[in-house]
Amino acid sequence: MARTWERSKLSIWVWCVLAGSCLGRFVVEKNSLKVSTPASLKGSYESAIGNFGVPQYGGSMPGTVFYPKDNRDACESFENFNASFKSATRQLPIVLLADRGVCYFTLKAWNAQNGGAAAILVADDRDGDLITMDTPGEDHGDSGYLQNITIPAALIKKSLGDDIKKALSDGDMVTMHLDWTEALPHPDERVEYEFWTNSNDECGPKCDTQIEFVKNFKGAAQILERKGYAQFTPHYITWFCPPEFLSSDQCRSQCINNGRYCAPDPEQDFGKGYNGRDVVLQNLRQICLFKVANVSSKPWLWWDFVTDFAIRCPMKEEKFTKECAEKVIQSLGVDLEKINECIGDTDTDVDNPVLKAEQDAQIGEGSRGDVSILPTLIINNRQYRGKLDGGAVLKALCAGFQETTEPAICLSSDIETNECLENNGGCWQDKVAKITACRDTFRGRVCECPLVQGVKFVGDGYTHCEASGTLHCETNNGGCWNDTRGGRTFSACVDDSSTGCKCPPGFTGDGVNSCEDVDECKEKKVCQCPECKCKDTWGGFECTCSSGLLYMREYDTCISTHSAKKSNFGGFFWIVIFGLAAAGVGAYVVYKYRIRSYMDTEIRSIMAQYMPLDGHVEVPSHGSHTDI
Ligand SMILES: *[C@@H]1O[C@H](CO)[C@@H](O)[C@H](O)[C@H]1NC(C)=O
Ligand SMILES: *[C@@H]1O[C@H](CO)[C@@H](O)[C@H](O)[C@H]1NC(C)=O
Ligand SMILES: *[C@@H]1O[C@H](CO)[C@@H](O)[C@H](O)[C@H]1NC(C)=O
Ligand SMILES: *[C@@H]1O[C@H](CO)[C@@H](O)[C@H](O)[C@H]1NC(C)=O
């Protein structure tokens, strides 16, 4: 009896460490959700990225929200309700809104995906901070579909969910963008990433996922590392035995170095098979292998070791031993003696510097938060959320490079998305000129106005793009007529127009081959007042007034500067002065504002590398949840 009691208490302790609620700061990774219609909801909102599915790191996705009539918690297959969310061509993808509760988050996402939805938003059913939606553990039913979830999933606050539901019931169309561009920092041309893992291979789907990931990702990881694009560090979570349990069988069988470093029993049965202690020892061996390999500048050998070890030394075949591990080490040509030196004496009551450093690293610094979900991938000091799958992770890593510095592997067709093939990816296009704003990249498809033959197009990329200024006229004068005479240059290229060439005022013609001077005096009938004397010039005209009168171009008339007209002219004069002053103040305000907002983004982008800013603040929460 006493033993059972102690055991349940111990498993509560183990559970609380695993779930992170004892350690405190669990970080909920966010992406932003931008609602564009209806106007009453327009704005940016936070949503918490689910720890499954494939978030489009570095990219964004537009969509219209659909809230089903039946099966609102998405716990049943939508086939049973004859519902389909496949968007017709030329329609935005459908984002399914589902209620939290009743079943696992993963099941909701799976049903949404099978129904044809492009993403799922789960509306929280209680007020409070967002949590990370996690995958169910091994003891929970059939999770065979888990690895097949490919749509992104995010949790939104109850208040936003309620607002969207209300708008939909009022007959409004709710459109939005899910945006992951700021979900990962991308400061430079090298990505630092960490993988928090475990040598245990008998913990159900989580362990299977882990080893599958390492196998799948090994190739890409090694290329990135060998070429210096990425710096990878593996990490292992351990925890310590609470002092009151130090002499218990449990801690003895789970821990090394007198309760300092422990791992949970693989079978959760202390009498059977391998113990937590065996797992900690293998973990330690794997870190030491990495350290030794890293010193000899071959850190990527860790990937070989871990995959080989999983194949050659599985627990199932009772080969999870020191001897088996050492054979693998030797076959990789790593110095075994140095590794054993690093492992040190595990039976005595002393600190192990390597494991101690791991425990310290577990506590999050800055924006990262504590590591409490195993396995966890950390990219540029931010926790990766989503499916642990080679392609999805590579996409996320690629999003960690500063744009244009990403290595070739990121631009390979393997991870491009071909989203532009269908419905032009929902982006702007000019079918006649065959110009499109859709571009397939590892960041997902992006709607970005293109650069066509030296002409930069500008616009939102979705509804409009137009040929823009400077570049357009700089190259060969945009293909338009230009001429210089007597120090005056006229050009038919208009900087802010997509309409090609247009003769400047004072000229007429096609704008491409020629622009002819207009004789304003004759054709436009300017400068025709009795006191006026008109003279045509190239590109304009000159008007002079007789007998001391002054020509006012705006009014095309000659006025007296003397008494009779004085008050009139004075009023006009002040209007002009006042107008000029107002324009000056206006321009100054615009200038100040632009400088301010420019400085703002510059400073923010620098600051963002050091601390979370309000755009993507992370609110510590009490853990992750798998369901209801
Ligand atoms: C679904 O459609 C089928 C055939 O069109 C029909 O027999 C069935 O009753 C429908 N089910 C529901 C729930 O509407
Ligand atoms: C998941 O995908 C795999 C491979 O594509 C397939 O064999 C398997 O049946 C799928 N699982 C489910 C539950 O659909
Ligand atoms: C691995 O080696 C690199 C350079 O040789 C070093 O900067 C890095 O800190 C090392 N990593 C670990 C975990 O020792
Ligand atoms: C016309 O524009 C081109 C390109 O901007 C420039 O090189 C050329 O000198 C211009 N010609 C005249 C006559 O101004």
Automatic annotation (TrEMBL):
Protein origin, superkingdom: Eukaryota
GO molecular function, a single term: calcium ion binding
Main location: membrane
Coiled-coil region: none
Membrane spanning stretches: 571-591
A Pfam family matched in the record: PA
Record's bilayer topology term: Single-pass type I membrane protein
Protein name as it appears in the record: Vacuolar-sorting receptor 1-like
Species, as recorded: Rhodamnia argentea
Name of the gene this protein is made from: LOC115746914
